[in-house]
Design a protein that fits this description.
CATH topology of the largest domain: Rossmann fold
Structural class: alpha/beta
Distance between the termini: 68 Å
Strand content: 15-25%
CATH architecture of the largest domain: 3-Layer(aba) Sandwich
Order of helices and strands: HEEEHHEHEHHEHEHE
Strand order of the largest sheet: 5-6-7-4-8
CATH class of the largest domain: Alpha Beta
Largest sheet: 5 strands, parallel
Radius of gyration: 27 Å
């Protein structure tokens, strides 16, 4: 063992040659010449590259765990195509909304408009931005999924409705897509509204996406919920332009 260690020990000798970058003498080790400062910088770059790669992997895992469908996993502000002034206004409002959450505020946001106008893309961009630039949590569900998970507790004694509501209220941002689509049954709508009330009580931000008009949203949510959504600044983003899916 000692013989092996002695074999692996190399003597470092200072040479008269200078490093062209740092202008210090090169060291010669096992027949190779190197600069001590260059070696340190190379190790530092290697560590930084590894840390960056690890950070990117963690981000991608968080995005995968955010509930977004496969179609929207790579959607962000950078690949959102702005083709009209209304879209430019929409993306700026969404960017400002994300920044407010990152800055420890808890506003709410409504993305309303006709189908195919990129509302879910914008919500995915907000989720990605928050997960990338903070330690905040963000989760995507459809309104129908929320209602169903709560109604499932009626036949599953292992989990209570209260626990499910607490789960939905735990995220710093909850995106509820397709509000007004598959939640029209009175009980389903009641379940979704319970989550909204709980999130208000816990001072958490909610993003609602709907094809409803602003008037229909106000009527459907009711005066009490509508008032609560406004308390910490309700940002309304109207999305009324051509269906982008027809132009792909």
């Amino acid at each position: 063992m000692n013989t092996m260690l002695k074999t692996l020990q190399f003597r470092a000798e200072t040479t008269e040659a200078l490093c062209p970058t740092h202008h210090i003498p090169l060291m010669e080790i096992a027949g190779h010449r190197l600069c001590k400062l260059c070696a340190k910088e190379m190790v530092h770059r290697s560590h930084a590259a590894y840390a960056d790669e690890l950070q990117q992997r963690l981000l991608q895992q968080k995005i995968k765990n955010s509930g977004l469908n496969k179609r929207y996993l790579d959607r962000g502000f950078k690949n959102y195509v702005v083709a009209c002034p209304a879209q430019d206004n929409a993306i700026k409002l969404c960017q400002a909304f994300a920044q407010q959450i990152i800055s420890d505020h808890y506003p709410n946001l409504l993305l309303i408009g006709t189908p195919g106008t990129g509302k879910t893309h914008l919500s995915a961009s907000i989720i990605r931005n928050i997960l990338h630039n903070s330690t905040k949590s963000a989760r995507y569900y459809t309104s129908a999924e929320i209602a169903q998970k709560m109604m499932d507790t009626w036949s599953d004694a292992s989990r209570s409705e209260k626990e499910v509501i607490e789960h939905f209220s735990s995220f710093d941002l909850l995106v509820i897509d397709e509000y007004g689509l598959h939640d029209r049954h009175e009980k389903r709508l009641e379940m979704v509204h319970k989550v909204l009330y709980s999130r208000y009580d816990n001072m958490k931000s909610t993003l609602l996406i709907s094809n409803f008009t602003i008037q229909n949203m106000q009527r459907d949510l009711g005066a009490r919920l509508w008032s609560r959504l406004h308390e910490n600044n309700l940002i309304v983003v109207p999305c009324y332009w051509d269906d982008l899916r027809f132009n792909q």
